[in-house]
Amino acid sequence: MIRERRSIRRFNKAPVSRETVEELLEQATRLRDPDGDMRWRCIYAGSPEANQHLVDSMLAKVKENKWVRLMPAKWMDVAARKFAEIPAHLIVLAQTDPDRSMNDRIYADTCRVLQAFQLLAWEQGLGMLWDTEKLIRNKAFYSSIGMREGERFVGILHMGHFDKPPRGRGRTPADKKWSVYTESVH
Fold first, then answer.
1. In the list 16, 62, 154, 179, which could disulfide-bond 87, CB 3.0-4.6 Å?
2. CB 60 within 8 A of CB 135
3. Which of 73, 58, 77 is nearest to 158 (CA)?
4. Which residues cross the membrane (predicted)?
C-alpha cells in the first residue's frame, strides 16, 4: 500500500463525510500510540460553504503576490473553482512548545498520524494531497482558519474519492540518500 499510494489532484464529486474522516483519524491515532497525548487538532471543511470560505481565505493573500497579479483573472477564477470543488479539506495544526526538541517531536508525531491517515484512507479509495504551499502560510490565512496562539500550521489535506490513480513516478533508491559516518568527516 505504501508503494501504491499516490497524491491525488483530481477528485470525483463523491462526498467525503466528516464521520469517515473522524473514523480514519481515530484509527491513525491508535496506530501511533494508543495511550498517547494528542497535541494537534484538525479543522474539517466539507460543505460547499465551508470549502468556499477556505478557498477565499487561501487565495486572499495569494492575490496580493506581484507574480500572481500578472496572471489573468480568469486563471485565479479557475484555481478558486478547482479548490472549492474538492469534496473535503482537513486543516491540521500542531501545538508548539518552548522546548525546540519537544516542538519538533510534536510536529513529527502529527506528521506520523497524518501519514497513517493517508494510508488508511487510500485503502478505502480516498485520495488526498498534503498542501503546505508557502503562498498560503501567512497571518491573514492563519487568522481566518482560527489558528490559536501556541499552534503551528502543519498543512491542509485536500481529500476526495478518485476514479483512477495517477501513474507512479520513479523513486530515488535509498543508497543514493545516505552515507556512512566515519572518523574523517569533511
1. 16
2. no
3. 58
4. none
Residue 163 identity: D
5 touches 118 (CB < 8 A): yes
Per-residue pLDDT reduced to its tens digit, 111-135: 999 999 999 999 999 999 999 988 7
Task: Give Cα separations from 113 to 53, 88, 96, 148 (angstroms).
Answer: 26, 18, 17, 21
C-alpha cell at 9: 489532484
Amino acid occupying residue 153: F
Q: What is the pLDDT of residues 152-164, one digit of tens each?
A: 999 999 999 999 8
Spatial contact of 8 and 166, defined as CB atoms under 8 Å apart: yes
Q: C-alpha cell of 93? A: 495544526
Position 167: which residue type?
Answer: R
Q: Are 133 and 122 in contact (CB under 8 A)?
A: no
Give the strand pairing for 151-161 and 88-95.
antiparallel
Instruction: Say what the pTM is.
Output: 0.85
Distance CA 55, CA 130 (A): 15
Half-sphere exposure (CA, 13 Å, Cβ side) for 173? 3
| Residues whose CB is less than 8 angstroms from the CB of residue 183 and which lie 6 or more positions away in sequence, other chains included | none
10: cell is 483530481
Query: Would you say how long the chain is, in residues?
Result: 186
In a 13 Å sphere around the CA of 127, the CA atoms on its Cβ side amount to: 19
